[in-house]
Design brief:
369 residues; alpha/beta
Amino acid sequence: MSKKIKFLIIVAGCRAGAELFQSLLDSHHQIIQFPGTIFFNKKIKNLFNSNYEKIADNFVSDYPYFFDSRIKTVERHFMLGQNKDEFYIVDKNVFKDNFLLLNVNNGKKTFDQVIIDLHFAYQKTINNQSNFEEVKYILINTHTLKNTKNFYELFKDIDFEIIHSIRHPLSAINSATKNWINYKGGFNFNAKDIFYQINLITRSLNFLTKLNKKFFVVQLENMHQNSDYFINDFCEKFQIIKNENLFNSTFHGKKWWGDAVSGKFLSGLNKDYKIQINNYDYLIDDDCNYFCEIMKKFFQNYGYEINFIKKKYILWKPLKCELSTWKNSFKNKKFKHLLSIPFFYFLRILLINKFFCKYTNLPYSIGKK
């Protein structure tokens, strides 16, 4: 059975709809997933070497939010459904029993089979499904570049394909800065975080390409504006049966309204979605010129209009999004974070420029006309 099943890894871009894409695949009978991120490190690899009872106990302990969605406050899985008053509870003991039943011979299994069995046990606990012959993909949200790299390095024998979400780079930077500064007063957003977001936008494709895996991107704009073509293209590329569930943003079959960081409720796919190209709150013209120049090939390949023509290979002065983040740390009296500003400022100058942001073998964008 395991030979027929493929692993599909979702890597989140900067406010680029990774969870939205995951939510569209939520109820498809050929795809099984946990409703959130699984973190891969040496601890989980050592755990997978244990007996199945210990694996089950520790997995339930490490991921309580998979079994009681009221814990998932940032992702808003505690307010699902049409009236935003629903959540999901998954019986931990039944999950453990179902997982143990999959190891009928009590023998040691390969890492990929352990991952498959965890997903099968979860799915069976949710809907009592016992026949998994039609399942084609195990979908894993690794979310970050680091977590994806950990998965790659820890489980070298597991083959997988990558889907990475992206959006218009200028819109992504502005949205990330705005949302995180406004979320809980920006208490958790500092110099390290704005550098991470800029690095993610400018260099993630190069990083993921080096993993030498089959690699696709999904553009947030295409998901919304060209949803019919996007879903058709996805089904064709991955040999998935098209159904109406693929147009619905849900977790556990319950309507999802987007995460709390966005600061608003988002009702799934929106054909009227617009890309903000001008009048950014956290970018000035010099900043836009800088990103458009160092990412020119990216813009052109994925159909993003370039409205700025003045070349800026390296931008020595702080970006407006950086300055806003630094002021935010000062406002929140995050003095240790203020001390880190020079380091991440110079790291941005050193790494994020025309000489280090090179784009070769850009991956296919699902649903791009």
